[in-house]
Structures are given as C-alpha cells and as structure tokens.
Structures
1.
Amino acid sequence: MARVFAIEDDFLVAAALRLHIEEMGHELAGLAATYDEALSLAEGAAFDIILSDIRIGVPDGIDAVEAILKIRCVPVIFITGYGGQNYLERIAKIRPFSVILKPFGFDELERAIASALEGGPATRPG
C-alpha cells in the first residue's frame, strides 16, 4: 500500500482519483486544489508518490511539485489535459516518472503508480 499525495483542482476528477486510489488499495495522504494548499498539506503529510494536475491556477501544479520535491524526493506522475511544448519543457526539468494525458483510463493510472513504486520503466514527456 502506498500513500498518495494528489494535486487536482477539478472536483469531479479529484473525487474519481480519491475513489480509484482507495480501490487500488492505496491511501490518499493528501488532496490539494491549489499551490498554497498543496504546500501546506505536504509539510505535514507522509506520502510515497505525487499525482499532480498541471493547470490548477497560478502558481500551477508544476510549481507546486517543484516546491514539494525540495522537501521530499518521491516519484511524480503528472496528469494533464495540456501537452503544450512550454508545459512539456517545464515538466521535463522535474523528471517525473510519468505523464498521463487526459482523458485517461484508471487502468493506465494504476499501471503508472505500480511501475513508479517498483522503480520500473517510466513514461517521459516528449
């Protein structure tokens, strides 16, 4: 069982993530909708992996993940509907374990989480 920290501002996607993470047998260690909330929750949470949307406002999910990784080094999976070159370049600097484009199937997310936790092959942007 892994402790998952999620950053997602869309209520429906966040609810689906919560449900699926728990169905996979993992614990949702924190769920944030904004940069400030993500940093605040991450300071006191114990987690093994980060799932993050990109466009959560300004600062965005990439900024939030960068700040969190300064205090805890864990695998990162970005989930996004935006694959523009600017985002991909910024994401690549973080070296996430995987980037999943929306819409996605939860089986794809489950494989990415399992692989990240096992240190298996990553899906890199580009």
Note: The helical segments are 11-23, 35-44, 61-69, 85-94, 106-118.
2.
Amino acid sequence: MKVPWRQTEWRRVVVYGLGASGKAATRLLRMREVEVLGIDMRTAEQLDLGDLGSDSGVELILGDEPQNLPARVDGVVMSPGVPPGRPLVVAAHQAGLPVVAEVELAYQFLDGDVIGITGSNGKSTTTALTGELLRASGFEVEVCGSGGELLQRLPEFKPDLVIIDVEGAEHSVLMGARKTIALSRPRILVEMHSPEEIGGMSENAQRVLSWCKKSEYRAWYLAEGAELLEVVQLAHRGRCHLLLQTAELGFPEILRGIEQGASVTDFVRAT
C-alpha cells in the first residue's frame, strides 16, 4: 500500500492497540493487502477480535508487548490509548519508521472537506452539533469519533479543504500534516491565535509564513482579502483567519462577499 510517509510501500505494519479504532485500522490495512502484526496487553477473550482472529494476514501478540522492534516492519499505527514512550514505539522512531495514529492513517483516504475538532472537554458534543449544523445546511456529512467505524469504508480520494482551529498550535499541526498536505495539496483555512508562550501573534504568524514558503503555499489574510507578506499586517490581532493555498492560486474573489464573523458553512460553500 502506498503511503505519504515513506517512499517504499507498506507491506507489514504493527497496529499497537486493538480496541475499536485499532481493529478498524487493521481491517483497513487488510483490505489493502497489508500484513498486520497486532499487539495488545489484553487477551483475545477481552478484545473480541472476531474475523481478525482467523485472518492469516494478521499475526497477534496478546497479553504482552515486545521490547524490541519486530523484523520486516514498515511502520506503526498507534491507537489513542498507547503511551508514546513504550519501548517498541521508541525503537520505531529510532529506526526511522513512520509512527502514525489511526486518524492519520484514515486521513489519506478521505474525500471532501475535513473539519478537525480537538480540546480537553466537550469534543463529542461539539462534533455532533457541527455535523447537525452542516446537515441542516444541506451538506452530506459523516461524523467520526474514536469508534473507528468509518475506517473500513473510506473511499480512496484526497481532501480539498482542511480546517485548523487548535488554539495556537497551528504551526505544529501544519508540520505534523506536511506529508499528507504534500500529497493532497488542499486549501487550508487556519484560525490564528496569539498565545503568549510562543511570542504572540507575530511569532505564530512568522512560523506559518515560513511553513508556506517551504511548502510552496501562499497565505491570504481574509480580513483584508490580500496576501500576507509581513507579520506586521496582523500583529495587532488577537485572533484572525488565514487561507493557505498552493502558490499558483490567487485569492478567491467569491470570499470578498462573506462578512467577518460568518460561519464555517459560509466558507465551505464559497470554496
């Protein structure tokens, strides 16, 4: 299976954690003829593996975890509950192997617009409400959580639009998704914040501009409908919105008719 994280194809992959999302990730990989080494500290009886327990392409290590990296492994898919400091995960990083979450695994097969919602509390409620608002506005919507159901039926196509709202971690998200963005080249709507711990809006915007230059993107300051060339243009803002596009694209003129404070639904329709 071709992946954006390395030049060679994935043929044998560790899925670390076989809960709902881990089992869904395993089935997604098996549908694409990737061999899976599934690892979990629980027993088969506790996990209820179903058809995966009899799949000849799935090798299982249950009730224990290897301290060393297994042979012939091309990457690791981590479930949300697996601590990043586990010996096998550390060994994979040291060996230069891709270590991705099941969300990143699924992301490369998504089509259409993607809205990511994160935070400490209220994520499920906000996600459900966002889905209902978009449905009421006439959009076809799939609401995904940590259950992993959608992983097994994702079509193979690329996202056109990514929306980032992560309270000051915009550059970190862009860096983490750089290979996926390089593969898909989507438009990216970014809500910029000014966290004091990284130097406020000026430093945050400079990081995003540096990312754009390296990624052959341009940043458009939506409040002015103009390209963001210098951070001084928005240094006074506590929060603002940027549209990141590939370098050959100009500002979408249709956006000039959208008022400040308009909803995400208005932006999605316009693009």
Note: The CA atoms of residues 37 and 89 lie 14 Å apart.
3.
Amino acid sequence: MNRNSLHIHVVVATAITLFHSCVISCGHLAQYTQERQTSYSFNIMLTKCSGPGTIRRIKTLNVDENDWYIYEDDHITIMWAYRPVKIFTSTFEHVPVQHKKAKGLVFRLLNKTDQTVGILWNSVLYTDQNAEKHRVIHTTNMEQTDIETKAHISDLIYPIGYTKRRGWRLEPVPLFTADNAHAGQSISISMPIHNIPYTYLFTFKILVTE
C-alpha cells in the first residue's frame, strides 16, 4: 500500500470514528433534552381532616373535569379543589390587584350551624411539602370572614411564601414543580373557625402525572 492510499484509509477511519462519537453524543443530548422537556401535571387529593362532631366523612365529586373533595361533619360542609385561580393582592391595604392566573386551592364552605361562624384568616396556615408553614392570601383583606347560619362562601387559599414581589405587587409562583414536589408528599391547611370553635386541619396528598 502506497503512502497516499494509507493516508486516505486513516482519514476515512478517523471520519467514521468521529461520526460514531457524534451519534452517541447527540443521542445522549436528545435523551437529556427530552427528560428536561417532560411536563408534569399536578393535582391534590384530600386524604383526611380532623373535625368535631359525630359525622365526619370525605367524598369526591367531579364537576367540569375538576375533582372536588368534600368534607362534612355536624357543623360544616367544605368542598376543595386545586384549579386555576386569580390572585388578588397588593402591598396597599384595601387595594386588591388582579394578577395572572395560577393554580391554587379553592373552597366552598357551608355553615350548617344555627349561629354565625367565621374564618380567622390571620391564623390560617398553609404547610407545604417541605413542612414549612406560610401565612395565606385570600380574596379580601379582611381578617375574618363571617358566614351566616345555613349560608356559604367561596374563596381561595394561596401561601404568601409562594409569591414574589414586583414593585408594589405580589405575584404567585407555582406551588408544585418537578424540582420541589413528588407524588405522595403532603400539604395541609390549618383553618380556625370562630364560634364552633375548632381549628380544622385538612391534609392533602400531591398527585403527579406526566
């Protein structure tokens, strides 16, 4: 084999080796990119609640493709869901500002008693999946929401620790992401209700689907 032929063989062999290396590297890159682009869908499921009275039960209701979890006892019936909400909050008191949609916990609470009851918002706590406790945002700046006998209210709960400040506004950040939440972890909400009196503790399990 002459020198020119040997040179050609070396060049071809080198090119083939580089091609194989590129294929392997590109394959790993594609796999990594796919893993990074995998989207996760999060939901919650009410698993337990501490409450007074003799009737205590949890059931599920699907409305418009949303799962609502219902807790009931002698004093209240409350429905929970994890769904898109509009956060109203501002650092200026009594000047709520509407922000972009974010997913949070919404509820509908029925007062079954014969007296007015109230949610004590300054004492409501959201405990996240890392066991950190947070004060919460709801739809008004009132410290207490009263619910007359046999009446109901609808509201939302969003932890202040999951917001970020933009100027004088607070904007929500996701409660659950692929980096901070895993299936089977739990969150909870502690909600004192005046005139029952009782502090309800609602515990939810995080559900994750790809």
Note: Residues 10 and 16 are 10 Å apart (CA to CA).
